[in-house]
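Hey, weird one. I pasted the Bifunctional phosphoglucose/phosphomannose isomerase sequence into the form twice and got a warning about non-standard characters only the second time. First submission, copied straight from the form history:
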Amino acid sequence: MILNDRKSIEKIDKSNMLGLIENFDRQCKEAGCIKIPSIKKKQYDFIILSGMGGSAIAGDILKILVEMDSSVPFIVHRDYGLPGFIGKNSLVLAVSYSGNTEETISAYKQAVSRGATVCAISSGGEIEKLASTCGMPHIKIPSGQPPRCSLGYLFFPLEKLLYTIGVIKQCSSEKISNMALSCRENYGIDKIQDNKAKEIASLVHNKNVVVYSGNTLSPSALRWKTQLSENSKHIASVNYFPEMNHNEIMAWNYPDFVVKNSVIFFFYDKGDNKRVKLRMDLTSKILGVKSLNIQKLNSYGKSTIERIFSLIILGDWVSFYLAILNGVDPTEIKEISYLKKELSLVE
């Protein structure tokens, strides 16, 4: 089997994404030591994180934590500019791994012009230059890898920042690092038997993938969708309970060839609302009658952040193995690169 053959994998994985996934534990440790700037500790009306793609996932996780620990509205903004309600009493987190994401640059400039408190995080690029010019705080993180492989660098400095200003409780980068190390042992190439990541990748190969979760694991579910898209070049979709029950449950009838060729994942978390869990159980029962391929995955870990990362890390491994089965380099993103090049030619 190709997923057990490191040499065969290396021929496809030309840019060594495997190395980045294998060393995610080290990234988390390093990220926990990154120095953060001091920003004003006050009662903000809104906190908004501007970011796209791999850079925005950190915001999705932070949003769950802020909703648990704070009364401050927290928004993840995936667009140009900023909503009209963002102003002087807002905290804007501008997140761009490269520092050159045009949507985030647009949001950054608007935040400065409106007098908001702004803190940026990037590995360099235009965002760092703007922060220097404006005299605004900037968190510098290591460069040289795809944004989607830099979640530790993007998340933990921002988590520490929000903790220092009293918005959320402190998280442990060491616990996530230890979890990533354990996952490497359980999901890595050298684990031949009972390797859940390899089993799932083989199961969904040439299948339509759909992921459902409640609110707590929504960052994990979205991460699966985006990693399968970018790493595996594989179409996947995501939706959330209870909203799914108000529309999409009826979609599992047609087109017949899509329905029959799908694998549906239900992400369960012990922090879910008990009615959400009931809805998931009933929905899986309803869809099961139609002989659909349903897979239930449970998060694990004591804290919410551990449980979110437990499925994120599994999904990263699954997306890597699925890329290998699809015969594609998981790092290559030629369509995205072409799109950015063409956009740069137009003001």
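That's the output from the first submission. The warning seems to come from a hidden character in my clipboard, not from the data itself. DSSP finds 14 helices and nine strands in the chain.
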